[in-house]
Amino acid sequence: MRLLAAVALAAVSSWALAQPYGGSPSGPGPRPATIQVTGEAQVSETPDRVYIDIGVSTQAPKSETAAAQNAERLSAVIAAVKRAGGAGAQLATTEYSISPNYRYPRNGAATVVGYTVSNVVQVRLDDLQRIGRVIDAATEAGSNNVQNIRFALRDEQAVRDEALRQAALKARRDVETLADALDLKVVRVLTVNEEGPAMAPVYPRMALRMEAQAAPATPVEAGTLDISATVTLTVEVAPAKR
Hints:
Strand 4 (90-103) and strand 5 (111-125) form a beta hairpin. The chain has helices at residues 63-85, 131-141, 156-181, and strands at residues 2-8, 34-45, 49-60, 90-103, 111-125, 145-152, 184-200, 205-206, 220-221, 225-239. The strands form 3 sheets. A 4-stranded antiparallel beta sheet has the order 1-2-10-7. A 4-stranded antiparallel beta sheet has the order 4-5-3-6. The chain has a two-stranded antiparallel sheet with strand order 8-9. Helix content is 25%, strand content 43%. Helix 1 runs antiparallel to helix 2. By secondary structure, it is α+β, with helices and mostly antiparallel strands.
């Protein structure tokens, strides 16, 4: 795991040494002097899971003909993808549609001239070395729609927890540094606010081959996933006793 961390310091709230302490922001009495600090952390991890949308689109004058052609081609695509993806490949249908195709004459009403049937299955792979083989097998079997390649993590929660923990540690360390520099001591934590963790999307670089059973497999580079988290601490401070 490669950790990249950045710390953003929020504005330090006003305080006065002559101000009495011991009040509560929500209760009676004077408000305590406070310091607010924001800690940000980013964790970068190599993805170990990928989702690929692979589909078939067919057209015919009649909807039942287009549907039959689509079913035949997609069945061949699914069989090819399962062979190329191995035992770990999982498939699920994500889209199916039948829509009319219209002709719009210059004068007169639009008329239906045929139908388009689209069927898309999502392929989940945990072996990223098979991505190119799966795409090539699908296109060779008849797929004319390969889109929306999305990389992910099998244990995403563990990485999110680490980003959040690092952000909290950064905020706590810097609030203590600020208090010490201002000759103050931290009395207590008043509020903790967290944002995220959020995962930055990864857009793979790929090049679909257009010819060639003899050509190399379609290259796809996964890159890394960046998960960031932000924690804001508001603490009560008082003059340090020296």
